[in-house]
Design brief:
Strand order of the largest sheet: 4-3-13-12-14-15-16-17-18
Strand content: 15-25%
Distance between the termini: 49 Å
Radius of gyration: 24 Å
Number of strands: 27
Structural class: alpha/beta
Length: 559
């Protein structure tokens, strides 16, 4: 595994990853580039639908993509227009997106699990002219579209629904795709290719705009030298995730077939698909990793060579347990944002533990990715030395193109040198490994303004037999003038009777100093509030903790 360490400049206090020129012309049309790669390997399998068994070759995807491009062009969609997508993974999702890229139309995918007000907020801004959606939610989508008075054609995917056009009408109508003439589009490199929703973990999701150039730059993989033409990639995340388009890009560029499913992904069918399709490369969101490991059917996934986990902070225990189910491969802990793409990643389990004793512990997110520069800054934006905790600022090549319809927010995302303020707290150790602790706003200011990492307390709770998941938040107490630590716990079905509030408090407080002790209470709940991408909504837990505290309902250990 090829791994190059991050390099530190003590004069600027900036860390840099290795330099690597783009594999493809970053000023090209992303759609045209995709079409060229597809037609170069026409007989190769591009996509396998696990639900139906349908396999699409690169030639099939090339044909369908140009049919969609032809339809969009003939219906007067122009460079800069938007196509909406609210759908699960099905066989025409990738060709629709690729067809949009070809003519310079932006794709705005949103989650099928988004709340009505979030859908109205997003599409009220982007105003897509055509929308593709699953048949089973078409009526709901039309109701929302009508509510914001959006004049958009709606096509259904997967199933035909009365009153709606079906996607096959486009594929059946456009038979002259072989004569398609690719448009010569001005300023294509800076044209928005995709408008992804931000995670929504802190507030209502924003539309993150990524250009053709940005997506081409992001096609460089940290483990590209280890990919094989026999690999099979599993894409289980929904199309609205940035990772959907990134992994689709990898599959095109590296000639790797990808497996999709339109079914809701449970830990059980996720493992079943990996075994059934002999998947070798897969990404798993960190909130989902615990669900897999807690499944009664968890087992070694012998076909996997590379399992990448990201999208949140994970514990050392989780990382080692994941490695145990990948006996013939490696687990990579990756870190990045929708706005930046990948920032860092590990390549093995070596040296992953923190070098900072007593104060901050956590699992390393590895060395910086190609062409990435990072600095750790205090609350005033001043760069800090190694082993000092602050906010992570990052540059990952071409900056993202802003938040759609919210230009006033864009400039606040950068410092004067062009670094993106990630909103995440972390630090570098002396060797150049990056440690991501939590969101800055989730760090707990305890006694004497001592900064407590929630993950550290969660690790102690998670090691207790019978605990399925835990989450820790800080709530400011005006009487004490600091944030008290509150813990939320979901029990396993077979949890021992003695697992109550006092047991958890005693267990944790015996292991930590006064500033890290649970003083706000322990709350037992059946589920955590999550964003559509699975990320935990800690702001809602804080609201619940404050409410339960005011109602004197903290003592719930017997529930």
């Amino acid at each position: 595994m090829n791994c190059k360490k991050s390099i530190y400049d003590p004069a600027t206090k900036i860390w840099s990853g290795p330099r690597c020129p783009p594999m493809y012309n970053p000023d090209a049309n992303l759609g045209y580039l995709f079409m060229q790669r597809l037609i170069q390997q026409p007989k190769s399998i591009f996509q396998i639908c696990d639900d139906t068994g349908v396999k699409l070759t690169c030639a099939d995807v090339y044909e369908r993509s140009l049919k969609f491009a032809s339809y969009f062009t003939r219906h007067n969609l122009k460079q800069g227009d938007v196509v909406g997508l609210i759908a699960s993974n099905s066989e025409n999702v990738a060709p629709i997106m690729f067809g949009c890229f070809v003519i310079g139309v932006a794709v705005n995918p949103i989650s099928v699990e988004m709340k009505e007000n979030e859908i109205e907020h997003m599409w009220g801004k982007t105003k897509p002219k055509i929308i593709f959606t699953d048949g089973k939610i078409a009526a709901k989508v039309k109701e929302g579209v009508d509510k914001i008075k959006l004049d958009a054609k709606i096509f259904t995917l997967i199933s035909k629904i009365d009153g709606f056009q079906f996607v096959d009408q486009i594929l059946d109508e456009y038979t002259d795709w072989q004569n398609y003439i690719f448009p010569d589009l001005p300023n294509i490199s800076s044209t928005i290719a995709i408008i992804n929703c931000s995670s929504g973990t802190t507030k209502i999701p924003k539309g993150v705009c990524l250009s053709h150039k940005k997506l081409i730059e992001l096609s460089i993989l940290p483990f590209d030298s280890n990919l094989k033409d026999t690999d099979v990639n599993l894409i289980t995340f929904l199309p609205y995730w940035i990772l959907h388009i990134l992994y689709s890009t990898y599959c095109v560029m590296y000639n790797i077939p990808n497996v999709i499913t339109s079914q809701p992904v449970t830990p059980e069918n996720w493992m079943d698909i990996i075994d059934r399709q002999k998947v070798t490369v897969v990404f798993i969101p960190s909130p989902y990793a615990a669900r897999v490991l807690n499944s009664e059917k968890v087992r070694p996934l012998k076909s996997l060579r590379i399992l990448t986990v990201g999208g949140g902070v994970i514990s050392e225990r989780t990382m080692h347990e994941l490695q145990a189910i990948v006996p013939n491969g490696i687990v990579i802990n990756a870190y990045g944002l929708t706005e930046t793409g990948r920032i860092s990643a590990t390549t093995d389990m070596q040296g992953s533990l923190s070098a900072v004793p007593d104060e901050y512990t956590g699992l390393s997110s590895g060395y910086l990715h190609y062409n990435v520069r990072v600095k750790i800054c205090d609350e005033n934006g001043t760069a800090l030395e190694p082993n000092k905790v602050g906010e992570i600022y990052a540059i990952t090549g071409t900056p993202f193109s802003g938040y759609f319809g919210e230009p006033e927010v864009y400039n606040d995302c950068f410092d004067s040198e062009g670094f993106v303020k990630t909103g995440d707290a972390g630090y570098f150790d002396d060797s150049g490994k990056l440690y991501v602790l939590d969101r800055v706003e989730h760090m707990i200011k305890s006694i004497g303004s001592y900064q407590v990492t929630p993950r550290e307390i969660e690790n102690y709770i998670d090691e207790i037999p019978g605990v399925k998941y835990s989450s820790v938040v800080g709530i400011y107490d005006p009487d004490y003038k600091y944030e008290k630590i509150h813990a939320f716990v979901i029990k396993k079905d077979n949890a021992p009777d003695g697992l109550n509030e006092s047991f958890i408090v005693n267990h944790v407080n015996a292991k930590v100093g006064k500033e890290k002790q649970i003083t706000g209470g322990v709350y037992f709940v059946n589920e955590f509030p999550n964003a559509p991408n699975g990320n935990l909504l800690k702001r809602e837990l804080k609201q619940l903790a404050a409410k339960m505290g005011k109602l004197n309902l903290k003592n719930m250990g017997s529930n």
